[in-house]
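Example: N-acetylglucosamine-6-phosphate deacetylase.
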Amino acid sequence: MGSVVLTNATLYTGEGVLTDHALWLESGKIKAVLSPGEVPEDIPTRDLNGNWLVPGFVDFQLYGGSSGFLTRDGSVESLRNMRETHLQDGTTTIVPTVYSTTKARILAAAEAIQNYWQEGGPGIAGLHVEGPFISQAKRGAHSEAMVRPPSRAELTELIEKGGDVIKVMTIAPECFDDELLALLKTTDWAISAGHTNASSAQMNAFFDKGFSLATHLYNAMRPMESRELGVVGTIFDRHDVHVSLIADGFHCDFGAIRIAKKLLGDRLFLISDATFAKYQGTRFEFEGFVTNYDGERFTNDEGLLAGSCITLLDAVRNCIQKVGLAPEEVFRMASAYPARQLKMEDRIGYLKPGYAADVVALTPELEIVDIWTTSASLPPA
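Written out as structure tokens, the predicted fold is:
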């Protein structure tokens, strides 16, 4: 990336909206936010005709691209396909995810990301390990044979061999004793409660230990009842828990998103949870994970949802056009808020000087105009 000034834009910086402003990009970084009279005459410009300029989206949880599927492939080629597929829709940073699988496949995925970074690959923040230490009762489409209790030996090996690459681990808190939770506390990972059948008492005990994250609100978690808050109600009742959500129109009703947003505010953020995106097949099977694609959603043979087929752009459109949330808040839900959970809010998720030049131009109807992205790699700082 050379130097260019993007002019005449409706600029959403991550903190507010600036009309008729310009953004100066240089060498993969944001150099400056400019008013019209500050645009240098000797730098190439691009007129955005009043369209949105927003931070590139940050996807905290996704399993595949158009063809690559990390759990199966464990390869740099798969990661490239995931990156390129989701980048087409404005997602500039991804956290590739493996679901419940063998220890060997988790470590193969971590090694693939390490190799991707060593090759200078951009836009991958690390690995999300969802399972295998989850509840059988709330495993959803995860393979029954792959879900297992946690052990100190397996966790220690994952920490020793994959600890620098793993950024997020989704667990069922009720499957962990205090000793194993203390072991997870020694890492820099974001430990998230998900695929869990925990009671409210168990969830509060987990959160009171300093954990503050949950995975895909409403889905694969114990629901709220009048005399037992479960997982959902406990999240709503606390003020220190952040949670992701899949806004594809199938995983939860749009009204449920409105309710969650009113209760959670800036603690609710978007993920795609994409099994694949822009998928051309109709059925996928691997290691007991079976999913059928009908052009709108992925389901297993029992009819359970098995991930989504969306990108974050689809989630953004749904939240603005169908849920009725303000555009600038939805842009935060797809960029600044997930960046914060990754502890990368000092590099991505905002349009500020010194930040990565990860920028998406959108029409008022939320169609892609253009995408700019840094050429720099994103291993842990």
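The mean pLDDT is 96.
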